[in-house]
Write a structure and sequence with these properties.
about 0% strand, mainly alpha
Length: about 100
């Protein structure tokens, strides 16, 4: 079901990635400085040319495409976690409220 849903999202992934970051950083303005690509721009200026929204959606796409292979999926998610662990960021429920 996740892979089928991704087929609907995939053509719009650039816009979705941008919207995710605009919403996330609007809800958590203190975190904007944690992202080097957003430090010197306003949240309203985040667009498809910014690198992090593209990388977010690529990470989701990589995860979705490897769901059929648990070993590949686990390896990918663990490596992604390792790369982010050095940031020492502690996610809380308040960061992802709906």
């Amino acid at each position: 079901m996740v892979q089928e849903t991704w087929e609907i999202i995939e053509p719009h992934k650039k816009e979705i990635g941008v919207n995710v970051f605009i919403r996330f950083l609007s809800m958590n303005p203190k975190l904007k400085s944690s992202f080097s690509s957003f430090k010197n721009i306003s949240v309203d200026d985040i667009n498809k040319s910014n690198d992090h929204p593209r990388r977010l959606m690529a990470a989701i796409e990589n995860s979705v495409s490897s769901l059929d292979d648990p070993e590949t999926f686990a390896g990918y998610v663990l490596e992604l976690g390792r790369r982010h662990a050095r940031l020492k960021f502690k996610l809380s429920k308040s960061h992802v409220r709906i």
